[in-house]
Amino acid sequence: MNVIDTLPEPEKLKKLLKILSSLNIVLCTEEWLRYHRFVSEFDKNVSLASIDNGSGDDLFIIFAPQGTIIKGFDHESEISPYARDEHEVWPGIYEEVPTSLLSFLEDEAINKDDVTFCFWRENNDLTWQKGKVEIPAGAEDGSDFLLGTIFGTAEDFVEFAEGYFEITLPLEIIAKVYEGAAITKEMIEALNPDGDVEKILRELTELDS
After folding, report:
1. Distance of CA 27 to the CA centre of its chain
2. Which top-level group of life is the source organism from (predicted)?
3. What distance in Å separates the CA atoms of residue 28 and residue 196, rounded to the nearest whole number?
4. For position 2, what pLDDT does the model report?
5. What DSSP string describes 113-127?
6. pLDDT given for residue 149 in this prediction
7. Angle (CA) 83 144 162, round 5°
């Protein structure tokens, strides 16, 4: 199955990315080291989720009144602009993206031209969309790899955290967060005994604002 067909509906995706960001806030004091981030007020009525693996690959997802747009960059992909002599975006990635959504990628924090795939969904779309991109045989655009870091289950997150944060997390607490439970002081102390509980709670409040 194509990875685009496995993407959740925008609202479900947004909820999931906020959960991932909240867990990163709890587990990682240094914001720049967090794998998943979420900015509730990136712009007026616009939210921004981002994923950065610290190895040169990233994913930006913008939730706006007009719809949702996903821009991913796999720095090792054969269709990366850096793999091309003219350093241009691979043909077809942006050509069919609605202007109302594409304009959100102009923010300098997003590095619009660092891209190997782009998916989008306007409010009236029933499915996720992508441009007519022809990828050479044997090449990858990084979408399987990067969208696979949007961990859909508590079990997947616990496995990820063990490798990335080098900690073993209690599955029952992570499962509660995935089920929508608010993160409490007691949960923070169980997940990150050395964390600044008050600071973490403030950040979690900002996330939900």
Report:
1. 17
2. Bacteria
3. 10
4. 82
5. TS-SEEEEEETT-SS
6. 96
7. 110
Nearest-angstrom CA–CA distance, 90 and 87:
9
3-class state of residue 81 by DSSP: helix
Token pair belonging to 176: 């509660």
AA letter at 22: S
Return the SS3 of 100. helix
DSSP 163-207: HHT-----HHHHHHHHTTPPPPHHHHHHH-TTS-HHHHHHHHHHH
Task: Tell me the CA distances in angstroms from 1 to 117, 149, 156, 203, one per residue in order.
Answer: 17, 17, 20, 37
Amino acid 87 reads: H
Check whether 45 has a pLDDT greater than 90.
yes
Class of residue 27 by CB neighbours under 10 A (exposed 0-12, middle 13-18, buried 19+)? buried
Could you tell me the two tokens for 172?
């029952």
Give per-residue burial for 150-182: e unless 16+ CB within 10 Å, then b.
Answer: bbeebeebbebbeebbeeebeeebbebbbeeee
Q: Helix, strand, or coil here: 61?
A: strand
Strand order in the sheet with 58-64: 36-43, 46-52, 58-64, 67-73, 117-122, 129-130
Give the predicted TM-score (pTM) of the model: 0.95
Sign of the CA dihedral running 46, 28, 163, 167? negative
Q: Which token pair is 124?
A: 């009236």
Residue with tokens 């997390």: 169
